[in-house]
# Entry
Amino acid sequence: MGKDPKLIVVSNRLPVEVVRTEDGLKYHPAAGGLATSLQSVRKQRDMVWLGWPGIHVWDDKERKEIERRLLKEYESVPLFLPPSDFDLYYEGFSNGTIWPLFHYFPQNAHYEAREWSAYKAINAVFRDKILEIARPGDLLWIHDYHLMMLPELVREALPEAKIGFFLHIPFPSSELFRMLPWREEILRGLLGSDLIGFHSHGYARHFLSSLLRLLGLEQEFGRVITGDRVVKVDTFPIGVDVGRFETAMGTKAVQKELADLEDQTRDRKIVLTVDRLDFTKGIVERLESFDHFLSENPDWHRRVTLISLAVPSRTGVPEYQALKKEVDEAVGRINGRYGRPGWVPIWYMYRFLPFDRLVALYGAADVALVTPLRDGMNLVAKEYLAAHPDGTGVLILSETAGAAEELGEALIVNPHDTEQISEALLHALTMSESEQMARNLPMLARLRRYDVVRWAEDFLGGLEPEIAPAKQQVQVRLDEAGLELLLEAYRSTNRRLLLLDYDGTMVPFAARPEEAAPDEELLTLLVRLVKDKKNTVVIISGRDLETLQDWLGEIGADLVAEHGAQIRRPGDTKWTRQTTEAPDGWKGELRPLLELYVDRTPGSMLEEKTASMAWHYRRAEPDLGDLRAKQLMENLEGVIANTPLVIMQGSKVVEVKESGIGKGRAALRWLDSDTIYDFILATGDDVTDEEMFEVMPDGAWSIRIGVDRRSAAKYSLRGTSAFRSMLRSLVGD
Ligand code: ADQ
# Structure
């Protein structure tokens, strides 16, 4: 076969709709959009599409028939969703909660526990079907806001699955997102993915800041570490099939439509609007702007026609029925006020148009007025440009459409600003052809480069494993075979030295340092390691001595506190302070400066240790914390120049410490002692552990805990839970 692994595309609806008619079942494939974008992908790999076929079917025989035909003719697997939950999931949670909230209409969103339950239940139905059809190695690509719990549900059942998720609507600012009662669950649901894609950089940023503010998860260049996994977050602005529009413009059918249109509109200019009839699209506001334009510019009466095309959407929902009435009335009012014999200012069409007619309208329009109040991307703006391959025409585009991030040469407007839109209309209608082309050609070039096929390929490429940049020194991930070798070495040796960091290695970071106490299992494992006469166990930490004493004082291990400033051997009653050359009293001099930063940064705090002072800002507002950390470092650098003090930045902490103190020097106390160790293990997760890794002799097992990055350690383990299972293996569990 030679094909890549199978791709399973999952979305609420299949790209083909099954409709019951008097003559039996009919199959209507949906043109354009996702279906087109994945056509070229189909050529390279097996692909099936999983989703609802648009119809509830109870009869088993009929279900089988639909399944057979969809699979054979459309490579689609229908999922018959339980009707009892369907409305609660679809009209309820998806379109009554998420859709308005994510489009910045919190006043339209409602929060119903039973709809949320149905949403989770339907997501679980999708999960069950995926488990039926997926084989190891398959790629899963889940689409849109109806299925945000699905990545995590699949991940729980298939920990090794490759899962991508793409959100087609905006992701709102974290202030808005946090209004959702089930916000943490939704974030965790999405984090089941390996890759999460958004249309714009703004949405990705909003998502990342929600992760930070609501779950305390940090990101580094769009990579988020959650438990033992890395989730990538990136931007993939969806494109359109430019070629399809260009070609269509040359066909006889479209040319005929164009001629008919010109006949009807004669020498009038055409302004076009095309939307699904939805409250996010700003249709009423736009009509008001057109009204304003006509009232301000009487010389344009009879010279311009607004063709307003609205495709029916969610017609059974009362809010949408009310919106339709409002639009109908606004059109009637404007036509009544300005219309004259032979000139109807607005042609309003409330229906779905076949592709040829839509393309002809795009082609005939002198101006496209695309002013959604909020839109994930907005394909209409791109389709309009694609239907004008020579670069003529004017696009007026709302700044709150995702497309505005890419289409900056358009006339960008605030969709609520009637005055501005009216002025933009005048500018558009009088714009010279050379200005039109100067604006459109660069946008067209970008649309051609990053079309809908590139979009899909780009996203799927992001799901492939990352190749580390050539020069970066990356550790060898300790897989099962590697761990087996380590265990063999451990078992066959008699004088073993284990240097173990605590935070971020044995336990995950907690929001407050005092919450990261060792659990029962960890204590038992450590005691068992210590009891083995062949082992010297050293806990080597940055913590203060009281905490280490309190938490680990009884297990009988050697303890190193404060990055090596204090050491306590088993049996000692006291800690030994390691000496340095720093003058007495340095803390008194620096304290006022550090306290100033505590005052200026709510949530931060100062910690004093024997040989260091640390300013912690994990609980501060993240952006402010990072900014203040930079300022503090700069300030400190000036003050401590030429002293035996050094500054270190750790994870959410800036620390000033006496030089000569460090985990490296501390580790040497054991490495340089009279005992010759035949097995050495050093584990740690942050920059302070690097000094320890650097002094490890050849043959030592130095292991960095966490995602791979530059490190002096030879090996890496995914996270604290992987470390924990290594400990279990060492004690023989
Ligand atoms: P939509 O909200 O549906 O999509 P949009 O991107 O504008 O919004 O796509 C509408 C599509 O419907 C276009 O392809 C257009 O040609 C077609 N269409 C509209 N009116 C029509 C009519 N009367 N007759 C025929 N066809 C019509 C969601 C998000 C968007 C995001 C897309 C893709 O809300 O923000 O751009 O997904 O990710």
Remarks:
- The pocket of adenosine-5'-diphosphate-glucose is lined by residues 32, 168-169, 238, 274-276, 309, 311, 352-353, 358, 375-380, 383 (CB under 6 Å).
- Residues 467-472 have pLDDT under 50 and may be disordered.
- The longest strand covers residues 4-13.
- Residues 7-235 form a domain with the Rossmann fold fold (CATH 3.40.50.2000).
